[in-house]
Write a structure and sequence with these properties.
Layout lengths: L20 H8 L11 H5 L9 E2 L10 H16 L1 H10 L6 H13 L6 E4 L2 H11 L7 E5 L4 H14 L2 E5 L10 H11 L4 E7 L11 H9 L6 E5 L18 E5 L11 E4 L2 H6 L10 H8 L10 H4 L7 H17 L1 H19 L5 E3 L12 E5 L4 H10 L2 E2 L1 E2 L7 E3 L7 H15 L1
Parallel strand pairs: 1-11, 3-4, 3-5, 5-6, 6-7
Antiparallel strand pairs: 2-8, 7-8, 9-10, 10-13, 12-13
Helix pairs in contact: 3-4, 3-13, 5-13, 6-7, 8-9, 14-16
Bound molecules: pyridoxal-5'-phosphate (PLP).
């Protein structure tokens, strides 16, 4: 049984590639040469953003940079020209030509882990749902999360615990994000843990206040507890914004969309876990990538243990050109350099926060500390509702956003598409709105 048997039509079973020469050349061209990304203007030039605006909400959903657009368009053309031959080869032929495997290898290189431990998803939301529903929860088990997390995270836990007869609880990690310390965060989380707490779910960089949690310290604390709860991290606003070797950060399950800070194609995401943690999970959606699942089905038996990332990857035919072009987004980040990217984002955010601190009516909610923040700045202006702040900024052609939480703040998120001059312009606008 070869990978080719996996859902390929019988016509595809002949040995050797069925792909015509011309199409083979087209496939080779799908990996665009990266442009020179040595200076930030060159990086900014990769985006087709409307120059009539200052874009301070690009973390919301990525604008595809030129290399990603090219890869995506190349794959689209190849699929449109020859849907069966191209997709069959990329998905089901030998490992050397398997595009999902190549994407996983590229992602793993950035995360500092192994390609076989990367699961490709379509969003943070999908990754969180797969992990929480995959956990072997028993009646009476508890998942501890926090009051600070995103809707997608809380809902994934609520739905998974309801199915399993388990429960969920939310801890408060700090009184004020901007004054929080590592000790306060880790101490509050530890104090909230009970013997029945089997899993802890947190967010690395909060989209509510912009605080970045000390995941390494949280993980070290959890590992010292008798029941060593598993740690699930929603990492979407740290991946591609913070300098971290994610496979060694201490998360047991790291879930993130790659269509925000990573500039991956819209509708892409990843989950990373090590082999032992993948083996704990029960898949929710049939996969199209693991041969053992298919072989077991043809032999009318359950797949052999242990489970793995490929078995957890949701199958079905997808917008393949988007999934495959994700490799280019990771290559682009590697080309820019993780440390360099994180330093640029930190410098722009520090500039913004330092400027805000001089505006008496502006109340900052994000910590000043670069270690406890990343690329999001949450704030309020005295006497102006957050939605009105965003409207007034938009009237000045500055795109900001409000945080989608019960208590909502205005947010500006300086990123690689911005310049120090743009940050100054945003600060001038805030000064004038604050009056
Ligand atoms: C903290 C956090 N988690 C999850 C999500 C949802 O991300 P996705 O669209 O990748 O599911 C968001 C959305 O911005 C978010 O802010």
């Amino acid at each position: 049984m070869t990978r080719r048997h996996l859902l390929a039509a019988p016509a595809a079973l002949a040995a050797g590639s069925l792909l015509p020469e011309g199409l083979l050349a087209a496939v080779a061209a799908q990996t665009p040469t990266l442009p020179d990304l040595a200076d930030w203007n060159a990086v900014r030039a990769q985006f087709a953003l409307d120059p009539g605006y200052l874009h301070f909400a690009s973390f919301f959903i990525a604008s595809h940079p030129a290399p990603v657009r090219e890869a995506l368009e190349g794959y689209r053309r190849a699929i449109d020209a020859n849907p069966f031959l191209f997709v069959e080869r990329a998905m089901f032929e030998d490992d050397a030509h398997n595009l999902p495997l190549q994407v996983c290898a590229e992602v793993a290189d950035y995360l500092g882990g192994r390609g076989e431990d990367v699961c490709l998803t379509r969003s943070t939301t999908e990754g969180l749902a797969l992990v929480y529903h995959g956990l072997p929860l028993q009646r009476g088990d508890e998942i501890l999360t926090t009051v600070h997390d995103h809707y997608s995270h809380h809902e994934s836990i609520r739905l998974a615990t309801a199915r399993a007869g388990a429960s969920m609880r939310k801890a408060t990690l700090f009184k004020q994000a901007r004054e929080a310390s590592v000790d306060e965060i880790v101490g509050n989380l530890e104090a909230a843990i009970r013997p029945q707490t089997k899993v802890v779910g947190v967010t690395w960089v909060h989209s509510s206040t912009g605080i970045r949690l000390p995941i390494r310290e949280i993980s070290a604390m959890l590992r010292n507890l008798p029941q060593a709860p598993l740690l699930v991290v929603d990492g979407v606003h740290g991946l591609g914004a913070a300098d971290e070797t994610i496979a060694r950060m201490g998360a047991d399950y790291f879930c993130a969309g790659t269509h925000k800070w990573m500039f991956g194609p819209r509708g892409t995401g990843i989950v990373w876990a090590n082999a032992a943690n993948w083996a704990r999970l029960q898949p929710l959606v049939p996969n199209f990538t693991e041969l053992e699942s298919y072989t077991a089905w043809t032999e009318d038996r359950a797949p052999n243990s242990p489970g793995n990332a490929a078995r957890m990857s949701p199958g079905g035919f997808h917008a393949f050109e988007h999934q495959w072009a994700l490799a280019t987004a990771f290559r682009m980040h590697r080309g820019m350099g993780r440390v360099r990217v994180a330093s640029r984002i930190a410098a722009l955010n520090t500039q913004l926060k330092t400027g805000m601190a001089t505006l008496p009516k502006v109340r900052l909610h994000t910590p000043q500390s670069e270690a406890l923040s990343a690329g999001l700045v949450a704030f309020e202006i005295e006497g102006v509702a957050p939605t009105d702040v965003v409207k007034q900024l938009l009237a000045r052609r500055i795109i900001a956003s409000t945080s989608p939480y019960a208590v909502s703040y205005a947010r500006l998120a300086p990123s690689l598409v911005n310049t120090p001059e743009e940050v100054d312009e945003a600060l001038r606008a805030l000064r004038s709105i604050a009056g």
